[in-house]
Every structure is written in C-alpha cells, then in structure tokens.
Amino acid sequence: MHAHLGDRLVVESPSTGVVRRDGEIIGLHHKDGTPPYDVRWSDTDDVTLVFPGPDAHVQHLETEADDTPSGTGTVGDDTAASRTSANPGDIGRRVAEERRRRGLSREETARRARISPQYLAYLEEQPSDPSTATLFALAGALDTTAGSLRGGGVDRPPGQGHALLHPRLNDLDQEECRRLLSTHGVGRVAVTAPDGRPAVVPVNYEVVDDAIVFRTRPGSVPAAAAGDEVAFEVDHVDEAMSQGWSVLAVGPATTVTDPDALRDLARRAHTEPWAGGTRDTWVSIRPTRLTGKRITPADPPARR
Predict the structure, then answer these.
(1) What is the H or E stretch that residue 95 is in?
(2) Which helix (H) or strand (E) holds 229?
(3) Of 142, 146, 113, 140, which Cα lies nearest the Cα of 24?
(4) What is the pTM of this model?
(5) pLDDT exceeds cutoff 60 at 199
(6) pLDDT-derived band at 251, boundaries 50, 70, 90
(7) 75 or 243: which carries more pLDDT confidence?
(8) How far is CA 263 from CA 85, 252, 280, 282, 284, in A?
(9) d(CA 248, CA 235)
C-alpha cells in the first residue's frame, strides 16, 4: 500500500463492500508512502496513527502533479516537502497568506490544526482539495472561516480584504505595461457619454499593432469614445495575497472604417464580446501615454 498526502483511507466491510469509515491522510511516516499514516477521520474529526488492515484501501487524490510519494518523518517533523516544485492552488495560497499575516510558523499552525507541518507544506505548495474537517481545523487555527479559505465572497467588490502589513507601490515601465495588457482581455474605457455625463464602461478588448481595439454598437456609450482623447484601464487584484497591478493608457480614439482593417480585426479577434448581440463597430485607441502601478510586499527588514 502506498499513499500521498491528501489521499483518503477507506475502510470497507470485506463481505459487503460498504464503507465503514474513511479519513484524510494528513501525515506520512515513510518517504515511499507506505504505512503507517496519520489519518483525520471524517466521522469524528479525530487524528490517529493508523496501520491499515486488509479491509482498507487508499483512494488517491486526483492531481496533475507527479505521483512520486512525498514527505518524510513523523507528525512533528519540520520537513516541507511537495510532490513537485511549488504550484499552489487557491486554498493553499489563502492558507499561506493568512498564516503569514498572523505571524505563525507552519509548525505552530499545524499544531493548532492538528495536522503535520509536512501536510501543511503540501497544502500551501500544491493544488489540493482538503477535507471539510481539515478546512475547518485550519480556519480555526487561523482565526478565519472555511468560506474565506475557499474563496467565499468572490462576488464582493475586490479589495475588501486586509492590506499587506508592509506594502510597496512600484511604478511599471512601458515594457511591463505592454506585457500586462497582453493581447486581449477585459478593460474599462472612460468616456463622455452621449448625454454629456462621464462614464466608465467595461469592454472586451484586443491589442493589435500596439493599438487597443474593442467592438461595440453604434450610438452606445463605448462608441462615444471615438473622436476624443480617452483613458483605458486594466487591472488585476489578487485578493488572496492582497496585491495587484493596474495599467492606464491614454490616447486618441477613432472608429475603424477601412474594410481591410475591419476584416483583419475580425480575423484576429480572440473572443466575442461577452455582452452579446451584434457589435460590429470597432474603436481603436492609440496610447500616447502608458503608465502602471503594482502593489507587492516590501522586502523584509534585514536581521542584525
């Protein structure tokens, strides 16, 4: 029998095949993944050392990671092992960030949640699907909620989480701004609407030959950008990590009328406008000013 961290140990009746008990493997004691295992049982939330009998089998966690067994040592071991190089999932990133915000080590957090530091390292470094019991245990250890660790509240406006303890605001050069604009996505264009009022509207955009282009309907608010100097903004907010970036492009907007250019834009478009409907008016913005900002954690102070 071989197992990985996060796999499930299932104990069945040998005669009927009915599951009598199951639990999440949260600690390994041998690097080859052989028993015994530390198991958090789903029916009691208790963690016990288990030497599986003939009526037990392992259900492996589905993952894109390498199947090489990971981890060594006992529950109290400080080894931070993972199946492959660090590639955390959303839950793991939220757990790691909450832990750092509270100044907790992996060892202390694992002790509070009654899991091994080895398993906590796996959760933080690999895409994982911890059991509900483990998620609630981690939430209790971090003084938060299981819903928050799962990403609950994603429909709320971004930026309602805690700010970084030591944030750093950096200016982005034009090359980085162009890279972040990439080739397409969703951005916001600031225009004067047909009724004379200012408006900011989201649009699906493309970047073609250094121009920002988007499709809309004649007479719509985005179409009012043509003929004026406008501002166009894209951003990304990483709620779990309390950091992100924004890019602002300013320049004249024009309606694309050349038939060859229109055919080329239609051919090179990556997606249809999310708003749906017929949107065959193309507006092009040629940036004359391109600026950006990024919020990241400041470098930790040097130890004396």
Answers:
(1) helix 90-101
(2) strand 229-238
(3) 113
(4) 0.54
(5) yes
(6) very high
(7) 243
(8) 44, 22, 11, 11, 14
(9) 9
